[in-house]
Amino acid sequence: MHIYDFIGIGFGPANLSVAVALLEKDMLNDHSKIMFIESKPDFVWHGGMLIPEAEMQISFFKDLVTLRNPTSPFTFINYLAENGRLETFANLKNFFPRRVEYNDYLQWAAKKFENYVKYATKVIKIEPVLIEGSDVVDYLALHLQNVTTKEAEIIYAKDISLAAGISKVIPEYMSANPDIKISHSEDFLYSLETDFTDKHAKYKFVVVGSGQSAAEITMHLADEYPNAKVDLYFRTYALKPADETEFVNEIFDSDTVETFLTYDDDFREDIIENHRNTNYSVVDPKLISILYERLYYQKLIGTEQVQLHQFHELKGIDSDSKQAIFKELTDNKTVNMEFDGLFLATGYEIIATDIVKNFEEYLVYDTEDRLVLDTDYRVKTINANFKPKIFIQGASEHSHGMSETLLSLLAYRSGKIVTRLSESD
Ligand SMILES: Cc1cc2nc3c(=O)[nH]c(=O)nc-3n(C[C@H](O)[C@H](O)[C@H](O)COP(=O)(O)OP(=O)(O)OC[C@H]3O[C@@H](n4cnc5c(N)ncnc54)[C@H](O)[C@@H]3O)c2cc1C
Predict the structure, then answer these.
(1) 74 and 20 fall within a common domain
(2) Cα 422 to the center of its chain, rounded Å
(3) Is residue 215 part of a domain?
(4) Pair (39, 182) in one structural domain
(5) Cα–ligand 1 centroid distance for 346 (angstroms)
(6) 14 CA to middle of ligand 1, Å?
(7) Atom number of ligand 1 nearest to Cα 58
(8) Total structural domains within the chain
(9) pLDDT (tens digit, 0 to 9) for every residue of the chain, 425 residues total?
(10) How far is the CA of 394 from the centre of ligand 1 (A)?
(11) Do strands 181-184 and 341-344 pair parallel, antiparallel, or not at all (unpaired)?
């Protein structure tokens, strides 16, 4: 039976960065030892939200590798150079490339690891494999399923890195009626391609949410469908700006992870709560200004193509009349809004770590039933009877800090993981 040394589950930016770090340490030179499993058919970074005009929320310095090894061939700068755009990019005087370009950068990097990735394959279960006659877990069995053929397979690994990312949050009561066009922001552009092909039609679009995605979707619909009506609904008073100021931004630095880990749970929770406006339910201040100017211009020319509706909460859908039902929070009245397309920018949740539930008796959980990771992102085990190293990325904001679900520390985190992986224990 073949056992891989290491398998990465999910091949998004996090495990792609691990692949870069493995190559750097000369640990990626044998296909029979290392593999990554990715459920998508190809590498793409939030493809449904690759709105052409959308920009990164993070500096290109925080790419797959620069902050750990600026001389790596996998830097964003080297990508620009290889693609003949280094000088022109410099002329832009911009640290925040468009998301489309960052995706192209990631795809450029991912292509170099093609032989190590099994695409269109999902890991559905992981089980411990014991040394015969003992209670020592020696390695892990990963149950795979081909996403298209549904064919099942089991492969084995000594160590793993789980980087499964985020999954969309859709309100429970949303109907699955295919005649009603409702999609989560994650599928936004795919939905336009299939359901709203006439750019001149007088569609009625309703967008729900108050974060970056909601604002981007609203602007994109207004630009691409000049005859459509676009109504953005949200619960709060106004769209709030993301805090991108210099001192606060240090919360995403690698040093902060080290200190964050020394605080107790309550103190960490307070810091996260105080600085939620760096990332959650906030909009890039530049985009807020663009949107505000658009509404002003509408006043000037006497149109109402885009409208913002504060203090509204989505409560349900009337499938027969194709109406979204909102509660107006000021007076609890119900407001119905007819739509051709409804876009839910209602956020994401971290993909659960349930995939490792089959051996939870070996792993350390905190009082909130969350896995405890050490400074190297390795899951702590109850005793030495559990030999595999399990690394988890993107799921420990509560302990490692606000950078955990973002791109900020890809280079730092992957460096930590690969160094630990290279060590004998
Ligand atoms: C629209 C959008 C824009 C964003 N922009 C920014 C930004 O500008 N800056 C920033 O710092 N962050 C941004 N983020 C946050 C985002 O989480 C990170 O950018 C990044 O995607 C995290 O990388 P990841 O590899 O951890 O997760 P993901 O990118 O989510 O990748 C995880 C991968 O794992 C795969 N997978 C999941 N489960 C399985 C399984 N069981 N088997 C096999 N494969 C599996 C998924 O298909 C996916 O490809 C943005 C998020 C969104 C939604």
Answers:
(1) yes
(2) 27
(3) yes
(4) no
(5) 16
(6) 8
(7) 9
(8) 2
(9) 899 999 999 999 999 999 999 999 999 989 899 999 999 999 999 999 999 999 999 999 999 999 999 999 999 999 999 999 999 999 999 999 999 999 999 999 999 999 999 999 999 999 999 999 999 999 999 999 999 999 999 999 999 999 999 989 888 777 667 788 999 999 999 999 999 999 999 999 999 999 999 999 999 999 999 999 999 999 999 999 999 999 999 999 999 999 999 999 999 999 999 999 999 999 999 999 999 999 999 999 999 999 999 999 999 998 888 999 999 999 999 999 999 999 999 999 988 778 888 788 899 999 998 999 999 999 999 999 999 999 999 999 999 999 999 999 999 999 999 999 999 87
(10) 9
(11) parallel
Measured in whole angstroms, how far is the alpha carbon of residue 224 from the centre of its chain? 25
Structure tokens at 138: 């020696």
- In ligand 1, the atom with minimum distance to the C-alpha of 10 is 34
Please give the structure tokens belonging to residue 203: 């569609």
CATH number at residue 118: 3.50.50.60
**Residue 193 contacts by C-beta under 8 Å, 6 or more apart in sequence?**
none
> Which residue's CA lies nearest to atom 13 of ligand 1?
406
Q: How far is the CA of 79 from the centre of ligand 1 (A)?
A: 21
**Residue from 125, 249, 407 whose mutation best tests the ligand 1 pocket (most atoms within 8 A of CB):** 407
Structural domain range at position 70: 3-165+351-422
Let me know if residue 143 belongs to a domain: yes
Asked whether the beta carbons of 388 and 261 are under 8 A apart, the reply is: no
Task: For residues 174 and 89, state if they share a domain.
Answer: no
CA of 174 to the centre of ligand 1 (A): 24
